[in-house]
Specification:
Layout (H helix, E strand, L loop, with lengths): L2 H10 L18 E5 L2 E4 L4 E4 L2 H4 L8 H13 L11 H14 L3 E5 L2 H18 L7 E5 L8 H4 L5 H4 L10 E3 L13 H19 L3 E6 L3 E2 L5 E2 L3 H13 L2 E5 L23 E4 L11 E5 L1 H7 L18 H17 L1 H20 L4 E7 L2 E6 L6 H11 L2 E2 L9 E4 L7 H24 L8
Parallel strand pairs: 3-15, 5-6, 5-7, 7-10, 10-11
Antiparallel strand pairs: 1-2, 2-3, 4-12, 8-9, 11-12, 13-14, 14-16
Helix pairs in contact: 3-11, 4-11, 8-9, 12-14, 13-14
Amino acid sequence: MDNCLASRSMRHVWHPCTQMKRHEAAPPVAIDHASGPWLVDTQGRRYLDGISSWWVNLFGHSHPHIRAALAEQMQRLDHVMLAGFTHAPVVELSERLAGLTGLGHAFYGSDGASATEIALKMSAHYWCNRGQPAKHRFVGLAGGYHGETVGALSVTDIALFRDAYGPLVRLSATVPSPDARQARPGETAADMARRAAEGLEAWLQAHHTETAALILEPLVQCAAGMAMHDAEYLRLARALCDRFEVHLVVDEIAVGFGRTGSLFAHQQAGVTPDFICLSKGLTGGTLPLSAVLTTDAVYAAFYDDDAARGFLHSHSYTGNPLACRAAVATLELFEQLDTLAANRQLAQRISAAFAPLAAHPRVRHARRQGMIWAWDIDTRLPDFSQRYHAAALAHGLLLRPIGPMGRTLYCMPPYVLDDAAVAHLGRAALAALDDTLLQEAALPAQEVQA
């Protein structure tokens, strides 16, 4: 590790989602360059990027097709404001996304939380324009996560992120999660989904006149510990939203672009939402960009001579040409590489490599959805997440456990792993777990949780 670079970073960079004091014992890793699924630090050590650098990298780092598209675009147009102007990359991207989703109107932001904010504002404003201003509240799933700006926190149900900002946040309601791990003895995942939908139905029955939208992460609630649910919940949620005149917002920020096995997760339920939030993999992990897609009906409610009825929301870099061109190149790769079919084969190889980990006696609820793997670890270590992360780095692997207690180990890798990388992933993930559990065994009883 480049200690000079790490120390400079600690002096001047406030790292995200981090208690900075922890870096006194574990300085940030100084990365020099990256290629394919590999990150390389300033000392030449390589780390397999098992979480796609926070779930954004789809086709490996520095992919030549995306890099060439960006170089070409830089020669033509780097940026122009999208208010009153347009350009080829944003038009082509919007056309492609409409063709892939059936939602023909795209509004752009800079990140996932921005997309959540846009969708919530757009939904509430729609109902106001339709003469129903009382419909301005929202409902989400227990354990849901939709970003950390103030509006996004209002529909995020993870105390660690939200509680410190309670005075700033107008909390939304939550309904039971369809998390398949909560199934009762004898219940299937679909049974659990139907039971959770009953809770949603009861809530909407009582509150639909004041509810603008239901927001959810389809198939996988990521920050909740990769809580996976059956597509039946999405079908029932769509029907209930139609029945009670409530928008359905699907947050595909993390689970879109092939992560769950289909291009978009909600497509596995055969439903069409009113809003789709996209980001992370949208540009293949190269540049910040988010998009909110919506229906003709929503768009029409804003189309008027009165400026106040328009959607007066903006970001300086809305629809940035470079980011949009990277997104177009990313979608081109899906076509050129037949990625969804290729991923089905890759997922089988990765699952085989993970078989020893799934069979580990301290693993609970081993599960997979498409290109997402997760395992709950039976451990009493209060700092399991930090210890495992450090152990994985020592084995040349980037994995960071997640979840309310930090005890869910997961993997969401890029789509470009060769056989050697797959084998390394399986071996290193298991070795890091064994190393971390050995640390637990060596600690005095008072330092672990009962």
